[in-house]
Amino acid sequence: MKRITSIDVVRGIVMVIMALDHTRDFLLQNALTQNPTDLSNTYPALFFTRWITHLCAPTFVFLSGVSVYISAKNQNNISETRKFLRTRGLWLIFLEFSIISFGIWSDIGFHTLLFQVIAAIGVGFILLSFLIGKSHKIALGIGSVIMIFYGLLALVPESGLRNALSPLFVLTVLPLGERLLILAYPILPWWSIMLIGYGLGEYFLVEKTKRTAFFMKMAGGFLGTFLLLRFINLYGDPVPWSVQAKPVYTFLSFLNVSKNAPSLDFTLCMVGIAFVMLYLAELYGENKLKFFKVFGSVPLFYYLIHWYVIRTFLIITFLAKGYQWSDFVFHEQTLGRPKNDDGLTLPQVYLAWFAVILIMYPLCRWYSHYKSQHPEKTWLRYL
Questions:
Q1: How many angstroms separate the CA atoms of 159 and 246, rounded?
Q2: Which residues of 117-146 are buried (b: 16+ CB within 10 A; e: fewer)?
Q3: 11-22, pLDDT tens digit by residue?
Q4: Neighbours of 228 (CB within 10 A)
Q5: 10 near 296, Cβ under 8 Å?
């Protein structure tokens, strides 16, 4: 079956946006101490630079679920699909704590182990493998229940059981001797997004006109529900919005939904926007958006390489600013930056991000072409 262009295009768009977030983390002045969504210590341009990148993880996880459904449908072999999901899931977890971790921290001692989106997808694949062969409605139902109701766990009294289960639902930091394991992407709420993608996967296989109409309906449903819940301001996010001294900051407060763990409002908003992008991708077609399709056709390859491209920019930037190699700190969660560095301004970060994308494009285009020309090489399915 031919690849669905809108999936690759939207995945490519969010991957390009994702590089902006990581370039900001690595290069922006005060990036290690300033929270860009803290309304008491931010400004609109910085806020939206961070906020727009909230789209990336939920879209990536959602489309992973969709892709699993499509792949399982095409292969029509339950046991092989389960085996592949479990193998790929373990492979993604390994990559998270090896190549990706080193790309983020450049710490040869691996003092910080960060469980984030790739590991969350890996665990999600393993869990999803147990639902392969069952009705997609079961996955959709489980995912919806978790997404809608897991926020009620905040009302559960403190207990040993709640503390033991909390890593499944909330961001958790676990000391491991001299090391830290940061569970930045709690398993169950992120898995619920994958399940919803899997459960809706069949609607991606209908003819284009019906698919386009479906995307628009889902966008309206998700975003409409988000606006209603957020306006009521009683349930949907652990941090209610509030009126600020300036109207623009009230608007920012309204949009400032919680990513870790992904709240109901966060998921509704971001997946709703993803459906808008899917609709537009179907509307404008492959020819006008093929730049993004290149990235979206090789997502894992892009993800692995882009960390090291941005790392190279970090090293060049701070050496050019007069820092010495001995000033770089690699084991204290500083992303390998010098301590007390001045970094780049936000406009300079945008220029660096643009350069990163220009470097990544020919690499991804080459690998995408190589992968399409060698379908017989099964190992390519894992990269």
A1: 41
A2: bbbbbbbbbbbbbebbeeebeebbebbeeb
A3: 999 999 999 999
A4: 11
A5: yes
Q: Is 339 helix (H, G, I), strand (E, B) or coil?
A: coil
Query: How buried is 168 (Cβ within 10 angstroms: 0-12 exposed, 13-18 middle, 19+ buried)?
Result: middle
Average pLDDT over residues 301-308: 97
Local confidence band at 339 (pLDDT 50, 70, 90 cut-offs): confident
Mean pLDDT of 308-320: 95
Pairwise CA distance, residues 371 & 367, whole Å:
6
* Separation CA 59–CA 14 (nearest Å): 7
Pairs from 150-153 (Cβ < 8 Å, separation ≥ 24) = 150/188, 150/189, 150/192, 150/261, 151/235, 151/236, 151/237, 151/238, 151/263, 151/264
158: DSSP letter: P
| pLDDT > 80? residue 155 | no
- DSSP-derived letter for residue 169 is T
Beta-carbon contacts of 325 under 8 Å, excluding residues fewer than 6 positions away, are 319
Sheet holding 179-183, edge to edge: 112-115, 179-183, 172-176
> Which residue would you say has higher pLDDT here, 165 or 99?
99
- d(C-alpha 50, C-alpha 18), whole Å: 10
Backbone φ, ψ for residue 52 (5° rounding): -65, -30
| CB within 8 Å of 253: residues ≥ 6 apart | 39, 241, 242, 243, 244
Under the banding of pLDDT at 50, 70 and 90, the label for residue 2 is: low
pLDDT at 365 over 70: yes
Q: How many CA atoms lie within 13 A of 108 on its CB side?
A: 0
pLDDT for the residue numbered 243: 96
Is 0.90 topped by the overall pTM? yes
The residue type found at 266 is F
Structure tokens at 311: 């790392």
Each residue of 42-70: pLDDT tens digit? Answer: 999 999 999 999 999 999 999 999 999 99
The residue among 233, 355, 265, 351 whose CA lies nearest residue 54 is 265
Closest CA to 197 of 356, 358, 60: 60
Rounded Cα distance, 140 and 193, in Å: 9
- Whether 50 and 21 have beta carbons less than 8 Å apart is answered as yes
